[in-house]
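Dear support,

We are seeing what looks like truncated structure output for some complexes. This example has four components. We would appreciate it if you could run it in full and send us the complete token output so we can diff it against ours.
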Amino acid sequence: MLVLFVEDERDLAELTIEFLELDDIECDYADNGEMALNLLSSNVYDVIVLDVNMPKMDGFTLCDKLKSKGDHTPVIFLTARDALDDKLTGFSLGAEDYLTKPFELPELSARIKVLAQRNKPKSTIFELDTLHVNIQQCKIYRSNKEVLLTRTQWSLLKALINHSPNVVDRITLENAIWPDQIPSKDMLKTLVFRVRTLIDLPQEQSLIHTIRGTGIVLRTNANGT
Amino acid sequence: MLVLFVEDERDLAELTIEFLELDDIECDYADNGEMALNLLSSNVYDVIVLDVNMPKMDGFTLCDKLKSKGDHTPVIFLTARDALDDKLTGFSLGAEDYLTKPFELPELSARIKVLAQRNKPKSTIFELDTLHVNIQQCKIYRSNKEVLLTRTQWSLLKALINHSPNVVDRITLENAIWPDQIPSKDMLKTLVFRVRTLIDLPQEQSLIHTIRGTGIVLRTNANGT
DNA sequence: GCTTTAGGTAACCACAAGGTAACAGTAGAT
DNA sequence: ATCTACTGTTACCTTGTGGTTACCTAAAGC
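Here is the complete output from our reference environment:
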């Protein structure tokens, strides 16, 4: 994760950057707006942390320039200006966050991480052996071949994923799949069979295991807990 | 823009909601976590504002449940707990922002608006295969031929673009297209059919896919992981 | 060793989800 | 006032799903 840190007080900057780097956040540093613009023209950042009061070009101006240029890199203002009007100015210029000095380093770090997430795809991916599942996209692959599941089959798989690698008892599964009806005795049995034939291909190791008398589990091998 | 406001002090909530609504932010209100969960099961919100200390279910627990369920609605904590540890807890549970009481109403409003933007497309141009969409100008081209959509057709397309390449369930789509009415059962079906005939031309690969029993998705069928 | 029971496998069919087309009411334009 | 075209409604058709039933296999119990 790469951050552009723009701040004219060098000692504060140094201290902060040192902390952030320990937290796995790499930093480029600029001590004024113009220098920041230069760096921005040749680098892509996950987040920009911006002081407001700076020589040459202040943070507000820089943020405005950026955003109106169509750059959507998230901006956090980090400034001693704690008046409401300043904050509102910051947000109206398109900033994503506004933190006032004095601040606590871990909080800044947490906020940077939130913003860095923002542009990443929000897909939740589940992987186990050669099984790849993208939950938001409803896409399932087994050894790079797409597997098509129907709605009920899909809810069974999701329930198993939610509990994996733990064993899920049949009652819990039934409630997850048919929330507002009492399913008849054999429905789950049939459903598990169908999903198994689709997911556990003959040439692959099986991932859906039955623990007799207990429940079903999605994991690489049946033995051990 | 629709916000879920969860807060157990009724007078503070009332005051805040009144202010937000003047600022064009519609609010649903819950005074505890359980009630919030109920509302969340039947509504889709742009942002959730969460108090921490509440009867029945506290805000941290609620946020944890939501996020681990795969719900990506942005969460702001709004609480008197201003200790660093509390903030870090909030962020580690997946919250997008954390504001401490006492707070200023316009700042809350600004922060809500930032988060509501978050799920909107960042770019005014959307491209997929031979489909080119300029969202601001409402211009749509398929293989360089302009496509003219009506207002409702356009809002369907926008909703699909917002979620692409993820699958959108029918309820979410209906809420996005007809925000203040319960659409009759077949309206969406017909609308999708109409948009499909306009966008998915016979000689091109189809981009609007139905995931039976789940929803609609706008994407190419290329196998990504 | 025999019985019992949980679970595996297979085929069947009603029906719901979705696709398509035609029609009607209504709002906006001229 | 008239016309147009958009939106919502209804009807009909197609197909895949999901529930059902039946039968089989293999553990577990006695």
